[in-house]
Amino acid sequence: MLEIALRHAFEGFMLEAEFRAPPGITVLFGRSGSGKTTIANAVAGLLTPDRGRIAAGDWVLLDTVQGIGLPPHRRRLGYIFQEGRLFPHLSVRQNLRYGAWFAPKGTPREDMGRVVEMLGLGTLLDRRPGALSGGEKQRVAIGRALLSAPRLILADEPLASLDEARKAEILPYFERLRDEIDIPVLYVSHSASEVARLATTVVALDAGRVTAQGSAAAVLGDPEVTPLGAREAGALLAARVVAHHSDGLTELDAGGHPLFLPRLGRPVGALVRVRIAAHDVILSRVAPAGLSALNILPGTVHSVRLGAGPGVMVALDTAAGRVLARVTRRAATRLELVPGASAHAVVKSVSIAQADVGIGGDQPGEMLV
């Protein structure tokens, strides 16, 4: 269990955040200036808060009441930065061994061969960082962090400096890290897609305070939680791969309803996470017919949240989970979209990007709201 409680005053800004999170990837999610990096710095020992406690299980890094405050080099952290920060004069193999060199003697550590296999580094071991792509450098940085025998891994927006293709390359490795390695990860991000794919627990921050905490499905499916604004709002559904069809579509089972997406590289039976952006959902009060859209999820309106402009956020409870739809206030009035009303969510298959589909790290029943 990761336990963090911090209070620190800056000029014009007060951080007052407290949360506990189970094993897995805990994502600090919010706008720039919300306090994400301040929390990460406090965990790393680069900032001593006015008051606080930081612990990973029985490993106490900071407790201002008891007078405990481990220096950074004794905190047993693996740090993954935005850039790989590899030693340019060392090979990939030597950079990985550098992480292992800092592991305390007698401490259980990850096997280097397993880490190399998990991160796909076998063909890169003799190269130097200058001959690696951005995605390859980040894979080496992940491996170096794992081999340092950390009690906790900090990942400070590790994909922020990568283009979309490199992000797509790296995300599966973080999914494997979440599902295969028994080390808690504190991950800083302002990307809703990253949160949807990776998070075991989401801690939403705004102005230095925790505004919501829970599973990725619960937090992203809450219309009241919009850390990045309405344009980034969306819901997270759990689904299972049913079939791959000859026309290039993959069929999923989402709560008993078929969901068709462009072909996924996952085997039949695999559990996946699917993020559906609110602006990609159309609502209908009656079962639509004669549409090109293949994905239609019937449900009941849970809530309607008015925005400052002409838009409203409608939360629709379906058998697949909670779906968010961003529609105009005029449309919501015309359709009489009020809590309890029946409606259908319509989603185009091609509107769901590959980056918004990830490997399922939870059981469906735990992910659905």
Layout of strands and helices, then pairs:
Elements: E1 2-10, E2 13-21, E3 25-29, H1 36-44, E4 51-56, E5 59-63, E6 68-69, E7 77-80, H2 92-101, H3 112-118, H4 134-147, E8 152-156, H5 164-180, E9 185-189, H6 192-198, E10 201-206, E11 209-214, H7 216-220, E12 234-244, E13 249-254, E14 257-262, E15 271-277, E16 281-284, E17 295-306, E18 311-318, E19 321-328, H8 329-334, E20 342-347, E21 357-359, H9 364-367
Parallel strand pairs: 3-9, 3-10, 7-8, 8-9
Antiparallel strand pairs: 1-2, 1-4, 4-5, 5-6, 10-11, 12-13, 12-15, 13-14, 15-21, 16-20, 17-18, 17-20, 18-19
Helix pairs in contact: 2-4, 4-5
User: What would you call the shape?
Assistant: globular
Helix content: 10-25%
Estimated radius of gyration = 22 Å
SS elements, strand count:
21
Note poorly predicted spans: 363-369
Domain count, please report it: 2
Order of helices and strands: EEEHEEEEHHHEHEHEEHEEEEEEEEHEEH
Terminal Cα span:
22 Å
Strand order of the largest sheet: 7-8-9-3-10-11
What is the CATH class of the largest domain? Alpha Beta
CATH superfamily of the largest domain: P-loop containing nucleotide triphosphate hydrolases
- At CATH level 2, the architecture of the largest domain is 3-Layer(aba) Sandwich
Characterize the biggest β-sheet.
6 strands, mixed
**Total number of helices:** 9
Mean residue pLDDT: 87
Derived from helix and strand composition plus strand pairing, the structural class reads alpha+beta
Q: How large a portion of the residues is in β-strands, by DSSP E?
A: 35-45%
CATH topology of the largest domain: Rossmann fold
